[in-house]
Write a structure and sequence with these properties.
about 25% helix; two-stranded antiparallel ribbon; alpha+beta; 4 strands; 3 helices; elongated
Length: about 80
């Protein structure tokens, strides 16, 4: 968001995206002369103020009891391309 937010208060999300959209990937692979060319990705960190993060549904409203909980959420790990719970 465009709002100035203290860095420790901001909601931070690390975004990894393909440079090209999914529809164009097959066209690029067909037109490429290289067999195994790995398309580069975009890596960037997004900072949101609390209001913008709620509006974009990046974070959800929590009950009064849950707001006291300051533990980080459980992270899902990927192993062999599959999500583990």
């Amino acid at each position: 968001s465009g709002k100035l937010v203290p860095k420790d208060k901001a909601i931070k999300r690390y975004v990894v995206r393909n440079i090209v959209n999914a529809a164009a990937i097959t066209d690029l692979k067909d037109a490429s002369i290289y067999d195994e060319y790995a398309l580069p990705k975009l890596y960037y960190k997004m900072y949101y103020c609390v209001g913008a993060a709620c509006h974009r549904r990046i974070v959800r409203a929590r009950s009064k009891k849950e707001r006291k909980n300051r533990d980080p959420p459980v992270r899902r790990r990927f192993t062999d391309g599959k999500k583990s719970k």
